[in-house]
């Protein structure tokens, strides 16, 4: 599987082929979520700011289908990379999408929109509890979609490892 992820990432960088969406479930999902949680804790500690947690989390993540869609729409499509007139303030590194969204049409547009912006999409499946698992990351009851903002911090380093298909360090907390 790591080979497919690296190939997908390379195609994102060179703009040739839209990336495949990856699906995390079971033990793989547990490890990914623990790694992201550790990244959140590290970024929060190392950031050294005194913002309330919910405000700080909003700076790191785009939470919810509407917010993720809004950020993606403000990003220039990959074909318009050279266009500096519409350079976004915020770029998404990746999108985590719960597979248990009902009705499905709420998120039907996200894979196409993410692909046009060359943003990797990771589907989270957990026997109908994917949205609960994503909500835990951002201290909410549920979250159908979470966009990871590119901020060059510990969260982004963890996401880079996940996107590369590397085994994320599961040892230290």
Automatic annotation (TrEMBL):
InterPro entries: Ribosomal_eL30-like_sf, Ribosomal_eL8/eL30/eS12/Gad45. It comes from the Eukaryota. Residues 93-150 form the Ribosomal protein eL8/eL30/eS12/Gadd45 domain. It holds the Pfam family Ribosomal_L7Ae. This is Uncharacterized protein LOC111314023. The gene is LOC111314023.
